[in-house]
Automatic annotation (TrEMBL):
Family that this chain belongs to: Belongs to the GrpE family.
SUPFAM superfamilies, A to Z: Coiled-coil domain of nucleotide exchange factor GrpE, Head domain of nucleotide exchange factor GrpE
Gene Ontology CC terms: cytosol
Function: Participates actively in the response to hyperosmotic and heat shock by preventing the aggregation of stress-denatured proteins, in association with DnaK and GrpE. It is the nucleotide exchange factor for DnaK and may function as a thermosensor. Unfolded proteins bind initially to DnaJ; upon interaction with the DnaJ-bound protein, DnaK hydrolyzes its bound ATP, resulting in the formation of a stable complex. GrpE releases ADP from DnaK; ATP binding to DnaK triggers the release of the substrate protein, thus completing the reaction cycle.
Gene3D superfamilies according to UniProt: 3.90.20.20, Head domain of nucleotide exchange factor GrpE (2.30.22.10)
UniProt keyword list: Chaperone, Cytoplasm, Stress response
Organism of origin: Candidatus Segetimicrobium genomatis
Residue ranges of the region described as Disordered: 1-27
Subunit structure: Homodimer.
One Gene Ontology MF term: adenyl-nucleotide exchange factor activity
Gene responsible for this protein: grpE
UniProt keyword Cytoplasm, yes or no: yes
Protein name as annotated: Protein GrpE
Length: 181
């Protein structure tokens, strides 16, 4: 095949070869140095863009990881809260159990104890509230009662309507309590 080379005359009517021959080596050197500077600036700009993109990606990974951990924690708390309703029902059954059927009461006690042991293995522990001072970080006051007992200071928890629980040191469920006036 035959290659076809069309020479397009440059501005002023000279061919590109004629223009290159007319330049001095100093002009060519200056032009090459300018090109090197341009390419270095472009490379630096591209490098900075790369660094920013890498930092953005790393930040995204950390944020996604935190969101995933938060979702797992919320799901865990929801499941534990559901299990606590079963424990509450077992406690109510024990409170209202009569002496008529000792085997049933013993079975409920055993199931209740086992449920608390399983919860303890995964970091869930009950709050101790009776006799403690009311703290809204841990307690929910559902009743304020005038208490005549000597030595009971106002703000002391005198009754527990629903037990509160911690999971790994954080409040899983606030205790619902009666507080002395």
């Amino acid at each position: 095949m035959e290659e076809r080379q069309d020479k397009v005359p440059a501005a002023g009517g000279e061919s590109p070869d004629a223009q290159n021959q007319a330049r001095t080596p100093q002009e060519e050197l200056a032009e090459l140095r300018a090109a090197v500077v341009r390419y270095k600036e472009e490379a630096e700009h591209n490098w900075q863009q790369f660094l920013h993109a890498a930092a953005d990606l790393e930040n995204y990974k950390k944020q996604a990881s935190r969101q995933r951990e938060d979702a797992v924690q919320r799901a865990r708390y929801a499941v534990l809260a559901a299990v606590l309703t079963v424990v509450d029902n077992l406690e109510r059954a024990l409170e209202h159990a009569g002496g008529d059927d000792e085997k049933i009461v013993a079975g409920i006690r055993m199931t209740h104890r086992h449920a608390l042991e399983v919860l303890a293995k995964i970091g869930v522990t009950p709050m101790e509230t009776l006799g403690q001072m009311f703290d809204p970080r841990y307690h929910e006051a559902v009743d304020v009662v005038a208490h005549q007992e000597s030595g009971v200071q106002p703000g002391t928890i005198v009754g527990e309507l629903q037990r509160g629980y911690f999971v790994n040191g954080e409040v899983l469920r606030h205790a619902k309590v009666r507080v002395a006036k």
